[in-house]
């Protein structure tokens, strides 16, 4: 046993060195102190080791003392700590810690910044607490995406949080406080008695005083509570230069005691009102002082003059020129407090009534509600199968019910419990609302073995089956549903599936549930199946299942939903992004939207819609110019036609025909031909009689009457053409048509010239453009704020995937992709996590269960990669070739994404299967048609189709470090996007398609050394930053 303190007995060794009989190490002293005092900072000064803001990405830690596991730590002066740069697209939470490190190489305590993980919903990093290292969390730093500073409101002080830090205090608990408590309790009771007596006496006096006249006076006083309406204009140039932006304006009549109600005084002009409304959305709060107000904008300041209406309410007495009223005891009643609370509740309800409500639906939704307001969440209980695969004879319940539904809200789970099971069969999903509303479209019946049964005596099923009947408790079933799709009939003979549907369950039109549980479709079995022995055996089976607590059940759909009530589970909105999902299917969330974010979205939508309107106007102007040019061409052609007609070139020439091979007129009695002008692309409809193998129906010439060719000719017997279509070839200016005198030449034209078609098309486009312009102008301000319609238009435009990079690349961008999710994928995740860089994994869904070299599954590693900012891309081991069917395209391109999405991944891109062999024979146009609805990008599926977003070629990692460095240097010099690919990372030597860990780590270190000249990104990062559709580019051009 170790005990202390004791004096040592001093002796000496053979060399005269002193030897002490009692020695104590630092661990002993630390152990003693830790038994008396709790870990934490000392509470004698409020700013002991407090973390405060500093310039840029720095924070300052104030001087102070702390105790960790018996070790005393103190900082004598202020310390400045540097914080890592913010992530470009994701938020992060870092923690400032005081770390005690007992490692032999350290043996000290010091201050550090522990970097958190960037994420859509970031969390503070865990504290390290083990035998060697123990950390106290002094504060959490919220590092907003792309920020360059850490303001004080982003610093959360955790010193008083005992789980993270705490305050040093004695842990000895043997002080007897009974006497102190008794004295305090006695004093408190005495104080309450005195105060209660005083209040009772006052109240009785007030009630006796409130006769009719006094009450009337009080009513008049209340009615004279008058509102005061004021106004002010905040000019755009009056705001301060730095956030938070402020502006102080003079307002006659406002008092420092006023709490003004503020609204925008919108202009009658729609465009001006829209600008004023956006400016009003920037206002965070308004404070009053005598004769003036101060407005504060937290993030953005208005860019236009903003007129405001102010209303203040204060008591006024006509006989009191000072404008104030003193309330006395005789003016108060016991119910006034309740009345004030009622009015307060009404005002809060009125405020919330003006907040826009929005709705979002999906398997996982992220919304931005007003903090503290109630979220309305409805969950669709999707069908869940009991077990896997097709149900066997022992498993007659392919669908299982849900006794509860869990809603995930951030890191908190809420349980919704319906009064009865939710089945939610496909097509008839049940729902449950967090405020207690339950809708049942599905119910079930259970069999006990005592049901009635019968054997058909007529029809095709005669004596080939036995039916057991069970009537549902509510006879409101839908006769068209309730059949068990997963349990087909046995046998090979088709028993009218249109009637019986090949199910074991059926609902009759009388709304009684009819269940067929014994049946046969094999000839010669009728005697066996209708015997009492067989029926009793099955009844015994049903009874046994019932006794075991696993009765045979059949779920059916009700004709109308049944409304029930469950216990309400309120969900309050948290600050910022709120992520919600459920374990049973889709969630629909209705919420009071956070107004600044709504205004931001509306501002972006409005700007884009204005860009579309401007584009339409530009199209209109171009179309009008085209129409003018076409009309001028038309006039010139008509003039030329008039000259031709005046010259008599279109008069028939008798006694000759045109030879098909030479185009030369040949004399022959009984024939004639006519010469007419024509235009390339024109369609002529010819009526003529042609006889003879050398005679042409139509021969074409250029403007110099040089022979160009013919269309159709005669035969040994006469051929009569009636409205025979012929298209004028390129370069043709004239046509000669031959016929006999028996049938005169007749020519019908679809147009006079090609310019007439151009003019008609231009006129049609002009009409369409004018119609679209009129519709856009008529929509006005209302259409500018129709966000749902606008989003549909944007979605339609983006669905076309008419892709371009919207701006030139400002640096080199590098993307790393590793294919197949092999057993070494955990090494890939480790290497890139250590480098703080994202990586893309192209994953065949079949590889998700793969056990990796770390013991993790492929699914677990993929989730880790996504948490570190990486991306999951679809991939398949199957290859599309020239012989691939539609089902192959569906399986390789679509099913892979569905399977990955079912595993919880957001998949926006796909990597092509193959290695430059048979896949080159695939129909890439067809592949792109399959990709468009599901993927934003691909590596090589866009080959030859012009769909650039599906054609982002990758290059395999090189086999030497020098070659890898050269590829990166070339990308830096050209501001290019370089996509590296590989399959494995654990090879001993690099190959053409695989690499080594050492080469990858070297390359990552080389890229890091290049600094701001290069950035490692995912596919999603590139397309979020640079990708745009036609409409998005038009808006960007207008904004520029």
Polypeptide structure, described:
- It is built from 19 helices and 51 strands.
- It has 1040 residues and is α+β, with helices and mostly antiparallel strands.
- It has seven domains: 1-34, no CATH class; 37-157, Tail fiber receptor-binding protein; 196-326, no CATH class; 358-592, no CATH class; 594-652 and 753-799; 654-744, no CATH class; 800-1039, Glycoside hydrolase/deacetylase (TIM Barrel).
- Strands 19, 21, 24, 25, 30, 31 and 33 form a seven-stranded antiparallel sheet that branches. Strands 43, 44, 45, 48, 49 and 50 form a six-stranded parallel sheet that branches. Strands 34-35-40-37-38 form a five-stranded antiparallel sheet, with no helix packed on it.
- Strand 44 (840-843), helix 13 (858-867) and strand 45 form a beta-alpha-beta unit.
- Helix 12 (825-835) packs parallel to helix 13 (858-867) and helix 14 (886-902) packs parallel to helix 15.
What are the salient characteristics of this protein?
single chain, 1040 residues, alpha+beta, Tail fiber receptor-binding protein, 7 domains, seven-stranded antiparallel sheet, 51 strands
Short structural summary:
By secondary structure, the chain is α+β, with helices and mostly antiparallel strands. Helices cover 29% and strands 27% of the residues.
């Amino acid at each position: 046993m170790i005990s202390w303190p004791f004096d040592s007995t001093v002796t000496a060794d053979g060399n005269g060195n002193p030897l002490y009989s009692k020695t104590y190490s630092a661990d002993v002293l630390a152990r003693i102190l830790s038994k008396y005092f709790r870990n934490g900072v000392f509470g004698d000064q409020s700013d002991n080791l407090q973390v405060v803001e500093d310039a840029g990405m720095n924070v300052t830690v104030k001087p102070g003392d702390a105790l960790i596991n018996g070790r005393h730590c103190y900082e004598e002066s202020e310390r400045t700590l540097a914080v890592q740069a913010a992530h470009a697209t994701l938020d992060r939470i870092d923690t400032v810690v005081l770390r005690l490190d007992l490692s032999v190489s350290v043996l000290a305590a010091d201050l550090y910044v522990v970097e958190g993980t960037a994420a859509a919903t970031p969390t503070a990093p865990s504290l390290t607490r083990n035998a060697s290292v123990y950390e106290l969390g002094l504060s959490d730093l919220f590092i907003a995406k792309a920020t360059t500073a850490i303001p004080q409101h982003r610093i959360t002080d955790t010193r008083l949080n005992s789980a993270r830090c705490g305050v040093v205090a004695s842990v000895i608990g043997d002080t007897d406080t009974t006497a102190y408590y008794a004295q305090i309790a006695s004093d408190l009771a005495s104080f309450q008695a005195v105060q209660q007596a005083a209040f009772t006496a006052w109240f009785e006096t007030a009630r006796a005083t409130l006769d009719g006249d006094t009450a009337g006076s009080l009513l008049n006083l209340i009615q004279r509570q008058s509102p005061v309406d004021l106004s002010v204009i905040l000019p755009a140039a009056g705001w301060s230069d730095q956030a938070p932006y402020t502006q102080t304006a003079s307002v006659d009549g406002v008092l420092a005691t006023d709490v003004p109600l503020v609204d925008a005084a919108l202009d009658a002009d729609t465009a001006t009102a829209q600008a004023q409304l956006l400016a009003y959305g920037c206002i965070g709060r308004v404070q009053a002082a005598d004769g003036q107000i101060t407005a504060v904008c937290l993030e953005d300041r208005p860019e236009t003059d903003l007129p405001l209406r102010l209303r203040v309410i204060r008591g006024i007495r006509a006989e009191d020129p000072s404008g104030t009223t003193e309330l006395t005891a005789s003016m108060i009643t016991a119910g006034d407090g309740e009345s004030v609370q009622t009015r307060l509740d009404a005002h809060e309800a009125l405020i919330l009534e003006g907040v826009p409500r929005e709705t979002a639906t999906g398997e996982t939704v992220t919304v931005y509600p007003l903090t503290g307001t109630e979220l309305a969440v409805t969950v669709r209980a999707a069908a869940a199968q009991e077990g896997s695969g097709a149900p066997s004879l022992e498993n007659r319940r392919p669908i299982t019910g849900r006794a509860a539904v869990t809603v995930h809200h951030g890191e908190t789970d809420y349980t919704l419990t319906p009064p009865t099971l939710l089945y939610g069969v496909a097509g008839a999903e049940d729902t449950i609302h967090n405020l207690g509303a339950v809708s049942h479209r599905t119910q079930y019946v259970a069999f006990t073995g005592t049901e009635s049964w019968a054997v058909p005596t007529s029809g095709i099923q005669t004596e080939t089956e036995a039916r057991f009947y069970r009537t549902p408790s509510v006879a409101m079933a839908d006769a068209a549903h309730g059949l068990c799709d997963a349990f087909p009939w046995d046998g090979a003979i088709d028993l009218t599936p249109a009637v019986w549907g090949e199910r074991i369950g059926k609902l009759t039109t009388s709304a009684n549930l009819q269940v067929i549980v014994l049946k046969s479709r094999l000839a010669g079995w009728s005697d066996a199946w209708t015997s009492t022995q067989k029926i009793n055996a099955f009844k015994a089976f049903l009874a046994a299942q019932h006794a075991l607590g696993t009765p045979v059940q059949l779920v059916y759909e009700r004709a109308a939903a049944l409304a029930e009530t469950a216990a309400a589970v309120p969900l309050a909105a948290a600050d910022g992004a709120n992520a919600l999902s459920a374990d049973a299917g889709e969630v629909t969330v209705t919420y009071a939207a956070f107004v600044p974010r709504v205004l931001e979205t509306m501002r972006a939508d409005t700007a884009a819609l204005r860009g579309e309107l401007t584009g339409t106007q530009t199209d209109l102007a171009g179309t009008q110019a085209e129409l003018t040019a076409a009309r001028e061409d038309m006039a010139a052609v008509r003039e030329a036609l008039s000259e031709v007609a005046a010259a008599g070139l279109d008069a028939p020439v008798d006694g000759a025909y045109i030879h098909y091979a030479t185009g030369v007129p040949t004399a022959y009695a009984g024939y004639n031909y006519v010469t007419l002008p024509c235009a390339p692309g024109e369609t002529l409809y010819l009526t003529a009689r042609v006889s003879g193998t050398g005679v042409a129906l139509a021969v074409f010439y250029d403007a110099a009457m040089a022979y160009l060719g013919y269309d159709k000719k005669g035969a040994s017997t006469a051929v009569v053409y009636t409205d025979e279509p012929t298209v004028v070839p390129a370069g043709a200016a004239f046509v000669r048509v031959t016929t006999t005198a028996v049938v005169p030449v007749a020519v019908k034209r679809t147009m006079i010239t090609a310019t007439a078609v151009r003019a008609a098309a231009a006129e049609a486009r002009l009409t369409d453009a004018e119609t679209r312009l009129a519709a856009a102008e008529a929509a006005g301000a209302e259409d500018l704020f129709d966000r749902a319609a606008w989003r549909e238009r944007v979605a339609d435009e983006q669905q076309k995937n008419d892709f371009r990079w919207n701006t030139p690349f400002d640096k080199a961008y590098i993307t790393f992709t590793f294919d197949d999710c092999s057993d070494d994928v955990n090494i890939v995740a480790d290497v890139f996590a250590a480098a703080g860089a994202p990586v893309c994994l192209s994953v065949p869904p079949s590889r998700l269960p793969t056990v990796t070299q770390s013991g993790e599954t492929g699914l677990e590693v993929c989730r880790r990669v996504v948490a570190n900012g990486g991306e999951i891309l679809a991939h398949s081991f199957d290859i599309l070739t020239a012989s691939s069917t539609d089902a192959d395209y569906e399986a390789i391109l679509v099913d892979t994404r569905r399977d990955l999405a079912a595993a919880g991944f957001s998949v926006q891109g796909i990597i092509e299967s193959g290695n430059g062999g048979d896949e080159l024979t695939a129909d890439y146009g067809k592949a792109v048609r399959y990709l468009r609805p599901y993927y934003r990008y691909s590596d090589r599926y866009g080959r030859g189709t012009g769909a650039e977003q599906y054609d982002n070629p990758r290059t395999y990692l090189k086999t030497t470090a020098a070659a890898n460095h050269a590829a990166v240097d070339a990308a830096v010099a050209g501001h290019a996007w370089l996509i590296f690919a590989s399959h494995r990372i654990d090879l001993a030597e690099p190959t053409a398609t695989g690499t080594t860990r050492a080469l990858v780590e070297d390359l990552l270190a080389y890229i890091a050394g290049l600094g701001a000249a290069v950035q490692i990104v995912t596919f999603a990062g590139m397309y979020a930053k640079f990708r745009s559709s036609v409409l998005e580019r038009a808006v960007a051009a207008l904004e520029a």
